[in-house]
Amino acid sequence: MERYQGLKKRVGNIIINKYLFLKNMIDPIADMLTRIRNAVLVNKAEVIIPLSKVKFEVGKILEREGFIKKIEKIDESDKKKPFLRIILKYKEKSPVVREITRISKPGRRIYQGYKEIPKILPSLGILIVSTSRGLMTNTEAKQQKVGGEVICEIS
User: Fold this and answer.
1) pTM here?
2) H/E element holding 114?
3) What is the CATH number of the domain that holds 75?
């Protein structure tokens, strides 16, 4: 137990391994959305999250649709894992991202054909859909006539 003291932290009667949460993350997309939501609530300028291809694609869609300023990969040679830096966007000190919710979850996946994908006005928000042709917004999925898993809703 003594040799692992650097890796563990005692909180009350519970020992928490601070590296455990990165290895055993059940839903990394929900973690990304929660970090963005929390950063917007406290008016942070940026969010740093662990890198994955899906998170990067979701971030590129958010950047393209104007919900965030910029997304970039951070690959520091001294750190083992690369990260994503998401620079949040504000208009007149008000965040552009008003609401961000996860729809399809690991315990309950939501799949819809292109005819069943809900229409959302572009000024009100977007849905991100995972299709056989990659991640795209609900309007792009309807135009290309492909359905898929509805990942999240951003407004």
Assistant:
1) 0.81
2) none
3) 3.30.1490.10
